[in-house]
Amino acid sequence: MPSPSSSPSAAHVQKPSGEEQTLADVLDYAGSNRYIDLRMKRGINLGSTTMVTTIDLGTFLTQSQVGNDPLKGEVTQRKLDMNHARKMGVFIFKGLVSYTMALWKEKGRPIPEEVLAIASYLGEQPYYAWAPIVTSIRDEVRNIRVISVPGVEGELILSLRSNQVIWVVDGQHRRIAWKIVLDYLNQLVRDRKYTKSSGLVPSDLKSISSEETVVFWHEALAYYTERFSITMEVHFGLILDQERQLFHDLNNLQKTVSTSQAQAFDQSNPINIFTHRLREDGLLDGIEIVEDGRVDWNDKAWMRLDALNAVNARLFLNKTSISGAKPSIVSEREEDAWAFWGAVTKIPGIFHRDRSVAAQPAMLKSIARVYFELLWGREPEGKPDAEKFLERLPKIDFSHKNPLWNLPNIKEEELSRYAGLMDHLPDNWREKALVDVVIEDKIHFSSRHNEVILVLPGIIRYLAKLSPKK
Questions:
Q1: Which of the pair, 222 or 30, is modelled with greater confidence?
Q2: pLDDT of residue 11
Q3: Cα→Cα distances 247→166, 291, 413, 449, Å
Q4: Which one of 77, 391, 396, 464 has the fewest CB atoms closer than 10 angstroms to its CB?
Q5: Cβ within 8 Å of residue 299, ≥6 positions away
Q6: pTM of structure
């Protein structure tokens, strides 16, 4: 761990011990009275000399910079995305709250109700950790003072002056996220108010309500600044082109994990957790849901995991993605979500694409959107209407023979037979991609789901005998 050096600056001048020195010998160091000592392990990364160390949060934030501002120097980084940094801040804060609560539980101390509410809002996951960051010290190696560690091969102590900056090559958003949490904790213990939290705590919390809670946040701040550390790989003496190349390689030569596999492993997103529980429930007993690869029309598998998650994203949030789902919102809607799936799985042929159009993700998203609008939309119609919808849902004709599912190809004179249907559809419904193809009388909905769910929900509401959406 790094620590400020207590030695006077002159002690860092490279002169033999005992040799007389003048003021001229130490003038280069006169403005750098603060040093940090970093104990580091030497390594060779693809032929490049690197070192690895851990550093406490406060020292790192003080000593480091990011090359993303042209007004402050050469740019070697992408622009900062504050929304991304805030999401990382929530993850860091979540880990800190979990860690502090675990220590309190070990000591048999009761967790304040306020903290329990915040923990429920943040959600849980099986494990918390963060990837090392990659940095660069641009100074020439002959200008970086080192001390060998006696008896330990490959370990050195670096003594960095205050003006020897640690430049972040990979990890700028984590750096900002660490500072967001640190600033919030300092504000929290100072003002005892939950203000401008950037999503760290529920918005309805205003002030700390008890002395016990104050103690909890004081201890959390202490753990954050004294125990939490950052693992850092350091490169030395890089010129700008080398630093830019390193940034490129770190961010472009890695293969990203597929969305479906990521969701198969993740146990932190509350909608993903619900989807996994749904897979294990008797409602989908024996139904194959794959975590990767394609699911074609004639495949045995029902759908991909990420497609099922997308249906649940519509169900809980009326959004295209599960990203950003709040545990508190999912928790309060979960009972109704189980009721939704209980009704959906009663639709005849729901697990067979050739028997029911409801087996396709586009239709399931549309059904989920109707249910969301009934219960949680901008002008919700209420629980009684939602219950009527679920009761009628299995009785709707979701067979491929129902001409309404191929609405764009219905002739005008035939449309007139469906009195009131147009009241349920958007004015520009003909411009929306609804059906890709019809093969052997089987309707394949368009892959442009965002357009499909602008039309299908109206048809579903019409067939379920619901009033048009307000």
A1: 222
A2: 39
A3: 15, 31, 62, 36
A4: 391
A5: none
A6: 0.76
